[in-house]
Amino acid sequence: MRALSFIPRIALLALLIGFLASPDSFAFAFKPLIQANAPAIYNQGDLAALALQHVEMVFASTALATVIAVLLAILVTRPFGAEFLPLARTVVNIGQTFPPVAVLALAVPAMGFGNGPTLFALFLYALLPIFENTMTALTTVPGNVVDAARGSGMTSLQTFRQVELPLSLPMIVGGIKISAVVGFGTATIGSTVAAKTLGEVIIAGLQSNNLAFILQGALLVAALAILVFDLLSLLERSLMRWKAA
After folding, report:
1. If DSSP codes are grouped into helix, strand and coil, which group holds residue 209?
2. pLDDT band, residue 1 (cuts 50/70/90)
């Protein structure tokens, strides 16, 4: 039964790879959506290259946000860093309080058009879920486990590395999962400032009134987000089973 649960994911991955490898093979599915003589498949660039650049942008911004957010959470959960908690919360909340379009508009004058403003916006948006999950995980490690580690002679650093951090990993991965999935959808607006994402396909569809283009861009983003969500959920469940063992 457990193996059967992977069939939809494998089918989605196969469909995604097949479409990116040979988009024209799927033209029949989009022809009912277009007007006469309009192209049924996005023809203003390489869909596979755009999808790869979209994934790279989300991964890069999420990875950078993970490093910063986890370090901040570790700092404010230590006795010497507790006083920085209000400042850290203010920093990570900045991305969530500004609309993505506003962040891009403010970043363009300083960073220019292209991928830079989009990476910055995605980085800001990814901070909060990872920070809050990491902080919650570190502050809810059972006290008796920490006391037992210290009682066995472990230093504070050893207790953190060998007990607190491993036990916190499932919840940290949960925060990364939320940030990554949100990033896949948010990255599409980066194409409004010339970033190379699948938003180009959607914008091309809006400009030419081509519903097939819009649907292709949206479906590709959704498929990538679902597959990454499933992959990180699998990792999260594996870590939870390891934690419970």
Report:
1. coil
2. low
